[in-house]
Amino acid sequence: TWTNVMWSAAISSLVSAASVTTIGLSVAGYPSATAHTLSLWYGSSIYQCMITPMHVNTEYTCVPTVIGQDCSSTDTKMLIENDSNDAAVFSVFFETDDGNTYTVGSTCISDTATLSDDYPVLVGTTTTCTVDGEAGHVFDFVCIDGDNCAPTKQVIYFDASSPNVAIDAA
Known about the structure:
Strand content: over 45%
Number of helices: 2
Distance between the termini: 47 Å
Largest sheet: 6 strands, mixed
Radius of gyration: 18 Å
Mean pLDDT: 84
Order of helices and strands: HEEEEEEEEEHEEEEE
Structural class: mainly beta
């Protein structure tokens, strides 16, 4: 009987783990008429949805679909893809069914990263930072496309241990 209680508790904790209910973009500038694909690794699930950020100063959300499982990764990260040459400038967030919100307010990008020449102009940078031991710059927003905001795929890391706090220089 004791073993059954242990298994029941373990199964109960797996079932009650938070699930992602919403993924979103908050557009700060340069709206886009093309859909951006957002893939989020959270817990052991991979979520995905698409958002077309068409207006400035607007928050866009989508209800994601679970597209797979990844039990090997402990990182909470979002892959944002936009293969067109039409970019939006935005920040990213997601919400879980336990009422928590995870937000990246700004990102730290290494100075050795390959970015388009227009990226710093479009996204804005004022301070320096360190990423993986390399010097970098803090960008106030994210900008992704195949032209002025290259590269077309970028990964943003979240701090899953800090819900309800906007993480800067992520």
